[in-house]
Amino acid sequence: MCHETVKYTGEPFVDAGVAVMEHHLGKPCEDFKPEDLEKAARWLIKIYERKSLKGYLTIHFPNSGWCNATISKEKKAEYINKVLQAYNFEPISGRECVYCHRPAQFLADRQHIPMLTGASTIITSPGGVPGLPVCGYCLMAIQFYPLATLKCQGKPLFWWTPEPDLTYSLTGEYFREIEKLIDGGSDKLPNLSWPKTILLDTAQKVLASYGDDKPLADCIGLHVTNYGAGPDYHQYRLPKELLEFLKLVRVKDEAVRSAHTHIIETAWVKDKNNKKQAKSQEKETPSRRNKYFEALVEVFEQANWSEKTKEIVHNFYFHKKPETFQYNNFALCKLFLEKVAGMDKQRLETIKRTADQVTNTLIIGNNETKWLNSLFNHEHSFSEFMRYLIRVQKRLAEKGQVLSLDDILIMLDLSNEEDTVSKDFSLVRDLFLIRMLELVGKNRKDMLNELELTSNTDAN
């Protein structure tokens, strides 16, 4: 039976370190042997001697033996032996590791594990001895975690998920970046900006090669340090639903993929001087941000994020300029709203069917462009939109087509005809227009000329 060593525990710092060790050793942690741990330890000691990493380690392990230039060689060697070899120490009687629940072998503080307080500031603890009880294996794994991070706005940025395969894949992106910088002989690690953009851009890249047989899960981007006067902690959540959407887009038809790629590519903007950056803060490396990525991550910081995601459709999926009409794609919106916003499938299908009915029967079928023009340029309030639907209902009836009251109630998410307000009628209006523009653009592009002239006049 193989002796259990380091392992995923569900704790971010431990799991990030385990992932780094797996990447370096080229095998899963379940297969680690004592000689593997010794090999990894020797490599880490050598790597942490690099000038580019010594300063960076200060924001991970303040005043530790890894980065404190004032301590003697003997004390440094003693520190390194403790954090990398504590799994050889005798267990502490009656104490278990807070991470894996194996017998504890060490009592740690902020110089050994991030986000803890200093040993000298603890005034009481079990048995009168301060420190967090950990086993030697978890303590060792944590020492590798800095190599799973990027420096962003002066703080480490790294990944955690409850699925080890996904943690491994996401961590690998940053680990390889760190390796490139070290191998390139850089004296200092770049201090990046726009953490939300970095995280979602990384997720996009990983999902491109992440196997269909591998599980997805909610992801957390951690942006943390306790360097300085107090702890600085922030986490960005990327829910499983968003990852599923991003992965599914890649296997949809060309029109859907093209529409989504256009949204991403046109959302990139050059980074300007960050006015919020304090004068005393280290200068950030110029980088780009993506307005779409930033907006998506910001949505998931809201308590009612499933509702807030619907705003993404208006801001990014609804293309209102004539030169981008071609990128309006209802299938993309439907996929996003179903997977991410949790919108009812029947409701979305009813919206599409009704928009198709109006477009094919009245606009394309009978050259009545007013139904597109008026909705595009007017009908912005709920009452206006309701009057529009009533006029459409009457006109369709004249053409022998039926738009039932039940369909209108389903589209607007109303329980009965006495309801006077639809909380997201503007989303329905946007979806109507997205589908209309898509169909007209495919079948009667000439009909968009009048709409183009009107929209240009309004813009001027």
User: Total number of β-strand segments?
Assistant: 8
Give the overall silhouette: elongated
Strand order of the largest sheet: 3-4-5-6
Quote the distance from N terminus to C terminus.
76 Å
Radius of gyration (CA) equals 28 Å
Content of β-strand: 5-15%
Instruction: Write down the overall mean pLDDT.
Output: 90
**What's the total helix number?**
19
Question: What's the helix and strand layout?
Answer:
Blueprint: H1 12-25, H2 34-47, H3 51-57, H4 73-85, E1 106-108, E2 132-134, H5 136-144, E3 150-152, E4 155-160, H6 164-183, H7 195-209, E5 219-225, E6 232-238, H8 240-249, H9 254-266, E7 268-270, E8 288-290, H10 291-299, H11 305-308, H12 310-317, H13 330-339, H14 345-366, H15 370-377, H16 382-398, H17 405-412, H18 425-443, H19 448-459
Antiparallel strand pairs: 1-2, 3-4, 4-5, 5-6, 7-8
Helix pairs in contact: 1-5, 1-6, 4-5, 7-10, 8-13, 12-18, 14-17, 14-18, 15-19
Give an overview in words.
It contains 19 helices and 8 strands. It has 460 residues and is α+β, with helices and mostly antiparallel strands. It has a 4-stranded antiparallel β-sheet, with helices on both faces.
Brief description of this entry?
The chain has 19 helices and eight strands. With 460 residues, it is of the alpha+beta class. The longest helix has 22 residues, at 345-366.
Which labels suit this protein?
single chain, 460 residues, alpha+beta, 4-stranded antiparallel β-sheet, two-stranded antiparallel sheet, 8 strands, 50% helix, elongated
